[in-house]
C-alpha cells in the first residue's frame, strides 16, 4: 500500500502545537506517532497476557485497565 497515510500529519502538528505552545520540528510528529503506536502495541500485549492469566477469553477493558499504569511507566521520559 505505497502512498497510503497512516495518520494526518498536519492535524497531529496542530494538536501538538496547541497543547505545547511550541513549533514542531520537521520529523517530530513522525516520532510521536511511532512512539504512540509502540505504546499501544505494548499495552495490548500486556493486556492479552493479563487476560489469559485471569482466565478470560479475550482482552477486556478490565485487563487493559490493570496494565495501563505499568505500560505508562515504561514510556515516561
From TrEMBL:
The keyword 4Fe-4S does not apply. Belongs to the CENP-W/WIP1 family. The lineage of its organism: Eukaryota, Fungi, Dikarya, Ascomycota, Pezizomycotina. One of its GO terms (biological process) is mitotic cell cycle. Its main location: nucleus. One of its GO terms (cellular component) is kinetochore. One of its GO terms (molecular function) is protein heterodimerization activity. Residues 8-65 form the Transcription factor CBF/NF-Y/archaeal histone domain. It comes from Chaetomium thermophilum (strain DSM 1495 / CBS 144.50 / IMI 039719) (Thermochaetoides thermophila). InterPro entries: CBFA_NFYB_domain (IPR003958), CENP-W/WIP1 (IPR052484), Histone-fold (IPR009072). It is found in: Chromosome, Centromere, Kinetochore; Nucleus. This is Transcription factor CBF/NF-Y/archaeal histone domain-containing protein. Gene3D superfamilies: Histone, subunit A. The keyword Nucleus applies. Keywords: Centromere, Chromosome, Kinetochore, Nucleus.
Amino acid at each position: 500500500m505505497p502512498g497510503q497515510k497512516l495518520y494526518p500529519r498536519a492535524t497531529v502538528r496542530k494538536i501538538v502545537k496547541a497543547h505545547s505552545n511550541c513549533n514542531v520540528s520537521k520529523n517530530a510528529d513522525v516520532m510521536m506517532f511511532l512512539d504512540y503506536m509502540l505504546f499501544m502495541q505494548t499495552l495490548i500485549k500486556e493486556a492479552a497476557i493479563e487476560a489469559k492469566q485471569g482466565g478470560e477469553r479475550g482482552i477486556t477493558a478490565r485487563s487493559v485497565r490493570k496494565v495501563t499504569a505499568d505500560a505508562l511507566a515504561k514510556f515516561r521520559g
